[in-house]
Design brief:
6 helices; about 160 residues; alpha+beta; 4-stranded antiparallel β-sheet; single chain
Length: about 160
């Protein structure tokens, strides 16, 4: 069943696409519902495409060497995920799991790559998303480098109060 055009128009990457392109994407994408803690993309998946969060909330996670789960980033409604693996053609670098019941739409890797590089506007949206993730990652590394746990907690609280 195709994804409805109004739903696609509400997604960040698609909001400025022309109707013919949206119609083509509508037929090419698949939608699914996922429950809390369900894996949407597995780390190492060589076929993972580009995902879109229609509703709910997702989190990118990985695991430490001793098996502890580490949250990397959140995916908010209307946003996309899985772009890094689509861009470089490598397997997915992290797990993406649902932290709340969610609806996601997926686009296969080949079509996603064509979409990402089809126009400067689309490429800019993808580049801005990657830049945001890189800045958050750099901020987190700076916090982890602080010498005391008290300083790390204080710095993290300051980060949480700042709007992006």
């Amino acid at each position: 069943m195709p994804i409805l055009i109004p739903i696609l128009q509400g997604l960040r990457l698609f909001e400025n696409l022309p109707l013919p392109q949206l119609q083509e994407l509508s037929a090419a994408m698949s939608e699914r519902r996922v429950e809390r803690r369900e894996v949407v993309i597995k780390r190492g998946d060589a076929e993972a495409g580009l995902g879109f969060l229609i509703e709910g909330r997702l989190q990118a996670i990985d695991f430490t060497l001793d098996g502890r789960e580490v949250g990397i980033d959140f995916v908010e409604q209307r946003d996309f995920f899985g772009e890094l693996a689509v861009i470089d053609g490598q397997p997915a670098p992290e797990y993406v799991i649902a932290v709340a019941p969610s609806r996601v739409a997926m686009l296969d890797r080949v079509r996603a790559r064509q979409l990402m590089f089809s126009s400067p506007a689309t490429s800019e949206v993808v580049a801005l998303r990657l830049a945001q993730r890189m800045r958050r990652s750099a901020r987190q590394r700076a916090v982890l480098a602080l010498p005391s746990s008290f300083q790390r907690v204080c710095a993290q609280l300051i980060i949480l109060t700042q709007a992006e």
